[in-house]
Amino acid sequence: MQLTVDLNCDMGESFGAYTLGNDAAILPYVTSANIACGYHAGDPAVMRKTVELALLHKVAIGAHPGLPDLAGFGRREMTISAQEAFDMTVYQVGALNGFVTAAGASLHHVKPHGALYNMAAVNAGLAEAIAEAVYKVCPDAVLYGLAGSEMIKAGKRLGLKTANEVFADRTYQPDGTLTSRRLPNAMLTNHEDAIKQVVRMVKEGKVLSQQGTDVIIQADTICIHGDGPHALEFARYIRQVLENERINVAPTYSL
């Protein structure tokens, strides 16, 4: 049986006079796009244009809600209640879904961003609130979360379709969480190392932690980042390697 994995990328992170990422160039190499919803990045015009670009390239569209922290790009933790997590998720997913509906399409998935994503990976209360928000706004959407995390568990409890996400360019801790960006060696900057990690996660279901121990992991979807200096080169390379390894690249729960 041929292995299949989704390749997702965060997009629509430009806003106002500021341009971030290279969305149009990267879209041909990914199968799903996580579009910023205006809190950590993005604005209404960018949301609309990115939805249109994704449809042009037949890429599955997802909402990418984050914390209301434009200055920190949503990567700084905030103390929020479960109710606040629910409210901000409903608000942002609803906004992106409006542009998707206006374009005559359907929202495929929801993936929280940055600190909100990492907080909900280990905090069952926040995970439950986010999953409930997705269920009430777009019950047919796939909930993307860190592989094996509280987010995945919460989505399954509510009956949502879920996708265990792994990261090409991040290092892992023995409990399966990502190494904090504040710590040394949180990122894999060498393309070969990142590719080896990805292929092993997909084929063997394992990833080597920073501490040298193997972590069991399920890879339904792989995240690549579109805002790095070599993002386009890496997107092209990882797609080619996956196909060379006879791994089918397609959205989770293909539309």
Automatic annotation (TrEMBL):
* Quaternary structure and partners: Forms a complex composed of PxpA, PxpB and PxpC.
Read off the SUPFAM superfamilies from this record: Glycoside hydrolase/deacetylase
Q: What is its EC number?
A: 3.5.2.9
What sort of enzyme, by top EC class, is this? Answer: hydrolase
Functional note: Catalyzes the cleavage of 5-oxoproline to form L-glutamate coupled to the hydrolysis of ATP to ADP and inorganic phosphate.
Q: Quick one: a GO biological-process term for this protein? A: carbohydrate metabolic process
Q: Which GO molecular function annotations are given, in alphabetical order?
A: 5-oxoprolinase (ATP-hydrolyzing) activity; ATP binding
Q: Does the keyword Hydrolase apply?
A: yes
Protein family: Belongs to the LamB/PxpA family.
> Any idea what this protein is called?
5-oxoprolinase subunit A
**What is the native source organism of this protein?**
Pontibacter fetidus
Query: Membrane spanning segments where?
Result: none
HAMAP family according to UniProt: PxpA
Supply the PANTHER family for this chain: 5-OXOPROLINASE SUBUNIT A, UNCHARACTERIZED PROTEIN YBGL-RELATED
Report the coiled-coil segments. none
- Reaction(s) this enzyme catalyzes, per UniProt: 5-oxo-L-proline + ATP + 2 H2O = L-glutamate + ADP + phosphate + H(+)
Q: Which UniProt keywords apply?
A: ATP-binding, Hydrolase, Nucleotide-binding
